[in-house]
Amino acid sequence: MRFRHPDGSIVHLAYCTNVHPAETLDGVLAQLRDHCEPVRRRLGRDRLGIGLWLAKDAAHALVTDPSALRGLRTELDRRGLEVVTLNGFPYEGFGAEEVKYRVYKPDWADPERLEHTTALARVLAGLLPDDVTEGSISTLPLAWRTAYDDHRAETAHVALRTLAERLDALAELTGRDIRVGLEPEPGCIVETTADALAPLAAIGHDRIGICVDTCHLATSFEDPLPALDALTEARVPVVKSQLSAALHAENPHLPEVREALAAFDEPRFLHQTRTATAAGLRGTDDLGQALDGEALPDASPWRAHFHVPLHAAPAAPLTSTLDVLKGTLTRLVGGPHPLTRHLEVETYTWQALPAELRPRARSQLTEGIAAELTLARDLLTDLGLKELP
Questions:
Q1: Which of 104, 207, 235, 324 has the smallest C-beta neighbourhood within 10 Å, fewest atoms?
Q2: Count of CB atoms within 10 A of residue 292's CB?
């Protein structure tokens, strides 16, 4: 979906396909048929943006076989789909029964991460629509915080500088400007937008910036306005923003609130949980750890890294951080010029929701994704952007 900003530039809105992950190119092609095109039709659109997640094997197939890349581009066009952004965070196995900590491997100190992200950049350069020259890729925020020392930090920084050089060469060769954004996430070396400032300064390249995920921002209790102002002041580019909402519990000390939270404690993904105290931010790696005994203070609200559907906040006594998303979006694209032109709805947890909230049929998932995109579209038009055909 495309929107014209009042300054005349184009802002792209997509949804991320990691909600129905596939490991192979054949699986990606099936996604387009079974999910992406039906969402486009449900919205009544001639064209729909998707943020592709390409696992290691799918990316390798595309970067090593020009005919496969041309075939994917043809299939996108045939189904009324376009790609300007990729989700490069998960490497493989995102659809496994248990993902948890594995999603952070390989990290930026491992050579596989550099090679995979380079492959993604080359693929994206070949997938961009003919009238688009800018592409974006979100990536791991350096590494999970454990087993990361000064040596691994320097290795990661060297890898990202190498990536920047490769992106420069790719732009010269293809005329396509591909940028990569570190995506701050609770528990990682870069947990907040503030944590990104020093490493990005050390890398020192305008094709390496930040991806602002509004669920992660909210989970870490970051105020979006000063967070984004600090990025602007430091001249850190917001490569893209993922529009998502976290799980919020206002009164976690109450038994009924803990019971409601327990329904979201599931075995597939990590749901880092945080609370803001007078002594600073406190947290656990997973929601179950927070609910188990006194691991987390409960005098103040809790927020959990659980991407809840944008249009459907959990039932009371829980809610979502949709207001944080709205505030972030207002600062990102509501000013005289957009801070980013790539927006991506990223609710990948539909099948991890409590059983009574999960879509039971493919059509229900289609309707849910379409409803999220409709909400995002309405927020953009309320900010003065004009939806384009």
A1: 235
A2: 12
Reported in sequence order, the residue ranges of the chain that DSSP labels E, i.e. its strands, are 2-4, 10-16, 48-53, 81-87, 134-139, 177-182, 208-213, 238-243, 245-249, 273-277, 280-284, 302-308, 318-320, 342-345, 386-387
The contacts of residue 203 (CB under 8 Å, 6+ apart) are 157, 160, 161, 164
Structure token digits, residue 52: 């592709």
Residue with tokens 């509004």: 214
CB neighbour class for 198 (10 Å; exposed up to 12, middle 13-18, buried from 19): exposed
Q: What distance in Å separates the CA atoms of residue 174 and residue 323, rounded to the nearest whole number?
A: 40
- Per residue in 169-217, pLDDT (tens digit) is 999 999 999 999 999 999 999 999 999 999 999 899 999 999 999 999 9
121 by DSSP, 3-state: which? helix
Whether the Cβ atoms of residue 132 and residue 73 lie closer than 8 Å to each other:
no
* Burial of 167 from C-beta contacts in 10 A (0-12 / 13-18 / 19+): buried
Nearest to 196 by CA among 215, 212, 179, 175: 212
* Three-state secondary-structure class, residue 188: strand
**Which tokens go with 149?**
């020392």
What is the C-alpha to C-alpha distance for residues 79 and 39, in angstroms, rounded to an integer?
Answer: 11
Determine how β-strand 2-4 pairs with β-strand 386-387: antiparallel
- pTM surpassing 0.85? yes
pLDDT tens for 134-162 read: 999 999 999 999 989 999 999 999 999 99
Pairing of strands 177-182, 48-53: unpaired
CB 159 within 8 A of CB 201: no
Amino acid found at 211: C
Report which DSSP code applies to 19: G
Tokens of 89: 């965070």
Number of other CB atoms surrounding residue 45 within 10 Å? 17
